[in-house]
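seq:
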Amino acid sequence: MLAKPLVISALLGLIVATGCSSPATPPVAPQSSLPEARPASGNPVSKYIKHVVVIIQENRSLENFFAGYPGANAPTYGCAPSTPRERRFTSGSGCPSGDKEVPLHAISFDGPDLKHDWVSSITDWDNGKMDGFYKYGQNHGNYEAYAYVKQSLITPYWDMAEQYVLADEMFPTEFGGSFTGHLTLVAGTDDLTPTTAEVDFPNQPPDDCDSPPGTKSSFVDSKRHIHRFDGPFPCFDQWKTMAEDLDNAGVSWKYYATKVLDGGLWEPYEASKYVRYGPDWSKDIIAPQSQVLTDASNGSLASVSWVSPTKADSDHPSAHSDLGPSWVASVVNAVGESSYWQSTAIIVLWDDWGGWYDNASPKQLDYRGLGIRVPCLIISPYAKETSTSQPGYVSHTQYEFGSILKFIEEAYNLKPLGQTKAGYSDQRATSIEDSFDFTQKPRNFTAIPSKYSILHFLREPPSNEPVDTE
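struct:
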């Protein structure tokens, strides 16, 4: 049975009663009046959105979570090369010539952990044919990647899509896995030079400024050749991050991670020399990640928040855990049941595709990518509606990770991090603004039911286990 979300302030009192140290009477969050809905002009984002929360989960393609979702580009079959004999009997296939349709099969959270580095993503992509997924899996050739997680196990995500916006064209900045995915979610680039960029991961954990001396990162060049462990020490000042621009504008921000030191790939600011060795390190990098739940209720939410999970809560296949949907629902509910809801945009997305099948061929905007499509949910009082009786909306606009950064820049009237020709993606990207309608009547929040209650995550012990190593 799905647990009904609890009011956060009541939970805080319960936690005190059971021995935790949160205050019994938290300070009241500052009230923000909800503007009257009227035709928006100029930059409506900065008028209506005062808080942006980016929730980052792990290793799922859009079709792995939303295959068959009504109105989305998410068929329940994939494409794979057919044998000469199969080609003679194949007709009317929705796949490229020479390919066959492979039905996607249902799995649980005990599904395999598929390969998801640069080489495997390029193989899966296959020059846009999206039919190379059959080559990777624990048992090659048995179509393990052609799978979707049972809807009953991810009901909170479908509920969010049915109430708010499912963006079915969200692409990472770069092919490959989590390291570059997280870097580009805070910087919009990972270019080392005009013709080289970070790729895959360094040769020693924790993949950041606190790595052992002599640690080498890897890079890809403009011809898409990989230079394995031949890159710089992973403490970067080759590019700006959003932290610098937010700081310079006096806009508050926080990054919630399972631990501050040695957060690795899932705390990308630890790989930023500006943050790691500056004042932000002690005040804006927050651990454990569950503090976001109480910050929302006690008036401590920053203007911009990034939220990363523990491994168990991450949706990562290697965790073999069904906690992820409830973790995300708890964060959404914590914000939705607070006064911040009235002026907040919540974006939920996954850092990479995890090796799972996806049919959408990403446009190639530069030598880095775009990478293989991931799910994206956009939740706000102003999230666009299909109609008042059918609130869910599917956006078919092509987004990339830079689209989120561009939206943050619009909300706080910031300039782009840098020019497209310098490798930054936020200037070229289409903002997610078109998934909002600031002329519609802003909606009240309806809590997202989940299997595990928010109390589970408030009591969850700190984790020292890395979320992923790829």
